[in-house]
Predict the 3D structure of the following.
Amino acid sequence: MTFPPAAPASLNQAACTRALTWPFFLWIAGLVLLFFPHSFDFPAYVYAVKTLLCAGLLSVLKPWRFAPCHSVKGAAPLGLLMGLAVYLLWALPESSPWPGVTAWYQRWLIMMPGTLPDYSASWCYAYSHHPVLALLKLFGSAFIIAPIEEFFFRGFLMRWLTQKQWHTLPFAGVSRYAFWVTVAVFAFEHDRYLGGALAGMVYGALACGTGSLRAPIIAHVTTNLLLGLHVLLFNAYGFW
């Protein structure tokens, strides 16, 4: 199967880079603020502000113009199915009916390995006291950071690691090296690094298999939306 090039050769590569990377870098800048001493509500407000700022930047840069996001037959149901699968891979190990399994997973497969994550930290539960902030968290997690990460990791990084003129490269031409390095970087961007690795493999395979970001974006949005609803329905704020 032959896929169309990601962008015309005449398209400015610098503009492609800005569109696909700047929203991600803005999002990461918001994470840096969380290293400063904060009050009970501070992380929740930071998340709300960066959600709104990144939504605005997406509307200005329109990254979907610079990465292949064309319609592919079956992309929507495939993305929904894979998104559901990743959600289950992410949530079930910490919802096990066997406490020993959950404890082992949390101790060794969540950073930092060997220590238990501090789910008792008050900021994990700020959203239970602020419904508006919780809804902004759900919106930002599902509809802002999910596509931002796909534009950055699959749309930019995976192709940039393959060749210099990356913006003209179809996903079918991504190298194995670039694929697996992107999976590793995506994995360690998340505290649940095993879940992150499995998710990165699924989203990357969807991009390379369909030649478009449509399926991985749908999958990523589905995963994050289901996980956010899981958090709110079961008070599982440790996932946030």
In short: The chain has eight helices and no strands. Residues 1-6 have pLDDT under 50 and may be disordered. The chain has one domain: 13-239. The helical segments are 13-32, 42-61, 75-91, 99-108, 131-160, 176-189, 193-210, 214-234.
